[in-house]
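@channel sequence for tomorrow's demo:
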Amino acid sequence: MPWSRYDGIGLMIRYILKIFRTFILILTNSRMKNILILLFCVALSTAGFAQLSKSEKKEWKKKAKEFSKSPEALKQLTEEKQAAETQVSTLNAKVTQLQSNISDKDAKNAELEDQLTQLRSQLTTTKAELATLKENPVTPANSMDYSKGVVFKVQIGAFKNKDLSKYFENNPNFGGEKSQDGVNAYTIGLFRDYWEADTFKKYMREMGVKDAWIVPFKDGQRVDIKDVLEGVVNEKPAGTN
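structure tokens (generated this afternoon):
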């Protein structure tokens, strides 16, 4: 009977099935399975042997045999590797966070240094202005120097034989002057506003000083009321008699 094409195909199929059954048998046999794993490990390690020394090849062959005999050791090593990788990942995250915190602190320090520099500059400017003011003091517009401008005083009496000038020095609100005929006129109070002087005059009269009346001064000199009273009446506060 001649050899046909189909006979060759059938023979090839039977050969493949035989190899498959042998492989299944190896997998179901525990000993054969370990041998297969060992061969697989050796095959993998052989791929890197070209880059290993003889001592390294020997050491890795020994380890491959140990792992083939003890899968538990290989499992433990794998788990330890995974745990180490997890720990490294956690530490890397912490390092990243610390670096971020350091960056934030550096930015805050830079901001505080800028503020400190500005404060130092302001302090230097203030010191310079203070030194200038000490050298050239400025007299404010509402100075207590009543020797200039118009001032109103309330005269409380005029006496020919009474000299109270010794009380003038320590009492700036108490003063007096002596007329040509030897009469000493005494005043109390210093007012820039006429109506404030008028109110004080009324208080003095209520207290029993019946002769209290207002006397004006201009630049330290006594003047007539008509010379300085122009416009004062028009500015009289509401409710003032």
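heads up for whoever presents: Residues 33 and 209 are 132 Å apart (CA to CA).
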